[in-house]
Fold:
Amino acid sequence: MIEKPDFQKILISPSLLSANFSKLGEEVAALERGGADWLHFDVMDGRFVPNLSIGIPILESLRKVTRLPIDVHLMIVEPDSLIDAFAKAGADTLCVQIEACTHLHRTISHIHDAGCRAGVALNPHTPLDGLKYVIDDLDFVLLMSVNPGFGGQRYIPSVTRKIAELRAMYPEVAIEVDGGIKAATISEAARAGANIFVSGTGVFSASDYGAAISELRMLAAH
Ligand code: DX5
Ligand code: ZN
Structure:
């Protein structure tokens, strides 16, 4: 199992959703050379979100070509039925959407039993209250800063306040933020208390991924 993310350490997790899928292996190699900490792997089922993306066979293929931790974000209904398969395919973290989980504590235990770090993601409108009785079992919390389903959307400003509230409630929890994170928005999310940053178009729209990752890391640190 990878180490539990430290709330004081900045991690940049580029979202593969914005990669060129016709040369995914090369894209991953470029991110690795460019200093990415994690690879964010967005799974969509056409039910929890109105879109489809990538799944188990692609994860299996990527696992063979990278040593970076693969940060799997399950935007799917009934995630329990696929946790073991994603763990076996090479996920290092598995993050489920709180809105999709009826028995959240059981789901988190299942993720740990499968050998992965466990995260819970909250949509922009979802209150923080649901975290209260599971916070000690979690390895990180993911706050969505767009409505999930598509890359390239605009950061929702009210999420900054939500990050700050979560940081104040749980000073030592690792907070991942996902959606619309780029050079123009990362500082505000970082100052509010986020420390793990997903960025899709923010990295892939750059001609030099390494330069984009370094810039995001620098902006998050200041
Ligand atoms: C949205 C996904 C995100 C998305 C981020 O549903 O969960 O990970 O790919 O892409 P950008 O950074 O372009 O908003
Ligand atoms: Zn995501």
Observations:
- The chain has a mean pLDDT of 98.
- DSSP finds eight helices and eight strands in the chain.
- Residues 15, 40, 42, 73, 178, 198 surround zinc ion (ligand 2) (CB under 6 Å).
- The helical segments are 24-33, 56-63, 80-89, 104-113, 158-169, 186-192, 201-204, 209-221.
